[in-house]
Amino acid sequence: MLTSDNVTAWLVRWSHGDQAALEQLTPLVYGELHRLAAGYLRQERGNHTLQATALVHEAYLQIRKLDKVAWQNRAQFIGMAAQMMRRILVDHARKHGAQKRGGAEPRTSLADIHGSIAGPDLDIVALDQALDKFSRDYPRQAQVVELRFFGGLTTEETVEVLNSSAMNVSARTVERDWRFARAWLHQAIMLGDNGPPGLPA
Amino acid sequence: MPTNERLEDLFLLALDQDPGQRELFLAHQCDGDPALLAQIRALLASDKEAASAGFWTSSALEVEAARTAQQPDARIGQALGSYKILNVISSGGMGTVYLAARDDDEYHMRVAIKVIKRGMDTDLIVRRFRTERQILAQLEHPNIARLLDGGATADGSPYLVMEYVEGQPIDQYADDHKLSISERLGLFRTVCAAVNYAHQNLVIHRDLKPSNIFVTSGGVPKLLDFGIAKLLSPDQTPGANEHTLALPFMTPEYASPEQVRGEPITTVSDVYSLGVLLYRLLSGHAPYRLKTRRPEEIAQAVCDQQPGKPSTAAGRDESGGTSHTKDSGKLRRRLRGDLDNIVLMAIRKEPDRRYASVDLFSEDIRRHLDGLPVAAHQDTLGYRAGKFVRRNRVGVVAAILLLLSLLGGIIGTSWQAHVASAQRARAERRFNDVRKLANSILFEFPDAIANIPGTLAARQLILKRALEYLDSLAQEAGDDRPLKSELAVAYNRVGTLTWDVAASLDTHRKAVRINESLVKAEPANRKYREQLFDSYNSVGDSLKDKNDSAGALDSYRKAMSVMESLLGTDSNSIEYQKKLADAFERTGIILELMGQTDQALECHFKAADMLRTALKAGPKDIETRRAVGNNLLFIARGQADNGDYKAALENCRAAWKTAEALNAQDPSNVVYQRDLWVNDLREASLLQKEGNPAGALAKYRSAYAYIDKLSGADPGDKGHRRGLAITYLAMGDALQELKRNGQALEYYSKAIAISQALLAADPNKGETRGDLANMNTHMGTLFLNSGDFAKAAQFLEKGRLFFEETAQRDRNDAGMERDQAELHARLGDLNLKLKRWQAARDSYQDSLNIWLALRRRNLLRRSDRAKPEEMARAVTQSAAHAK
Lengths: 201, 883
Fold this sequence. Notes:
By secondary structure, chain A is mainly α. In chain A, 66% of the residues lie in helices and 0% in strands.
């Protein structure tokens, strides 16, 4: 079982480049993931958006209990945790059979599980690849996506994390970056190729 | 990179423009750079798509969780310890059971691996496994599957490796092999011996149920999961090993009351579970009659409901249970007495009143098999009455329920006295008093609460108990005609109040059978014939609900002929006039469903005549007034079918006035509110057909207000839920006609969501599937008309599947076939748009075939008469394209 001590320790080690450390953190995310998945299967509704955020926040609360905090501040930690979520979720999707073809799969979608309108699902692996590509030209915008979509952060929290790494952005900028990134990525993913046509590679 | 900055800026600036100005703005900004212009345009299109894609508003965690929920099991093919996972055996609340083989073993010994769901305390389970494994490994018995190993998977889920047993659950095995009662008892005693052996080794099973007792093809029973339940139970305080809470994943039906309540568990808890198992093996039924499979309801029944005798249960609803013999009378006789007593003793609520050990239980069965007197004896009346007093604290409804189940017992007892006692007169008086009380409970109390919104659950419980009471009384009735007559009326009433179609039909048929025998015995008795009339009508209604139009028509016609002959004996009877009007009405409705509009209208007009006579005799009679209003609506519908909208609308408005007057008199009565809803719905659909969608929408809104209020008052009432779904669908149609596609989509989605929930709650309700077929078709049509062909195809296909399923499971009526023909026509339209000429031709042909078949059977509505020719043209045209 993960305890607050070793969550922090593993996160610290991972941030220093120890790839094996990520495996130790995996159960934390997987537990939540499967709990959510089971909920979907039981057709439960609820404010799921909160749960991704809660996971990140909980990890933060756990490290705050410790004196020997290796993190300079909350923002930096949350940024790290969002990155961790991305890596683990992408690994999960890769290991468990996502991306059989193209980016968009016409299988039962999120919306369908919620009992409303069906549409294509999002393939996390395809998103990850598109996001890598996107970040080459748009590093800040890509980070917004990582924090919001993978970390589950609000606009305000995203601003806080970005500004802690010496970027000076406003909530408006984050919102606009998100809108642009969303359009760019959506196009890249839905087309199933590496990016919107005609964009600088 | 400046180019990049510019792309984002331009995209965002374009978004800030008025949509109408965007192109102009872009043309200006991208002047001379067509590539940039194309990029921005593509991004704008993407932005629009992304906004409507659900996943961007959630998070990656949820998206991945949703996808995982849809995935086949990922463990297959992976290794677990020294085992390789081959396949899934079963999956349940506790986790998944896999078939696996030893990886390093040249014999590839097969094992079953149970991987416990995450969320349970892994460390605790693994630790407990270590302390218990010694004990469990010691259980060496030919009828107990061995626990071999245990551990935790890489992602931290605990797992248990067990001997793999190939076979069938014991109840299934017994039915498939058509085992006799004695053979079943023998097999059961082998199970008892194994459980007893474990008890001697201080291991309690705690989760005995058919799926944990397999029988191999050689007929050897094997108990699975011995002691596993304890390993997996929530935390225990040290030293309180036997004080374990009920497991959240336990099958509550087999769990003892003490387990459900979280009280101490002993070997006698296993006696209880075995008793439930024997109940099922002998009678084919569970001891408790349940409306739903909700754990709370089962738990409540386990703790509070007195189980009926297995012999009584054995005769119950042939279609529902796993009946193992065709002759239920013979079976009932076999079970009555000893076996009833033995089973009921094993499943008593109080542990100390059961058999003290599995061995004693098994021994009593042996005594029965050997023809010796058994230790088990019947529960006494005094004991039951004591229970009643103890439980009589839960309010009026609960008191009625208890009284009903109690009365069943008292009636049985007094009836025996009635037959046997020397003091016949006194016994009879007492019996009749009790009967009166029972009738008043059955008839007055449900009435008193039936029309109060929000009392559905209470009503259902009363019905369940009432049916038990009736079934036990029916056994005792013999040739007592007045008693049988009372029973028939009561069955009819209970059936009418029951929502579940199959159960309702079954109960109504019981009434018909009794009434037919009564009329045969006493043809001159009018009361019996009146009852027979009622029960034929009720069976007709149930059959109609099952989409069996021909069966319903047949039953209604039987009812009409009974009433016509009654009217012949007393032509001045207002009551008979009203009843015959009602029968004509029902017949008219079914004829309309079958597409025979003219005949239907004829029936409705005849009904109108009779109602007019009745109203003249009693102008204040509420029932007649309501019937007049309904009659006007039926006439209006027929007239609309024949294209006479003016007359139809007039009749519809007259009907509304009647309904409103009744509602004003009794505003809290749900019946009149429902009438007003129906009325508005009808008027709206007339307006829509007449070509006035705006007027229709306004009326639909007014209809919505009624049904929304009703549904809100009693969210469990499925009739109201369906009403709400239908209203949403109709509103969607009107909106679609008004080109308000976004809103139409929203309403269709709501309709579908409600209907899907209804279908899940009662998969036997044919009309729900028909509703879903239509809703998906309308949704598909919406997308078709707005040019989203991919979505159109998706929904039309769903609609097609629902129609197909309906055709397979329920008998289709003409109305549904018409809808299906429309669906195929829409599929044709879609294929035409996609330039798939051949497919279009095929779809039109499908549609044409249905229309032709309807015409052949004389089931074509007047308004649909042009359809076959229309479709034939479409076929020809698309065929020309195909060439």
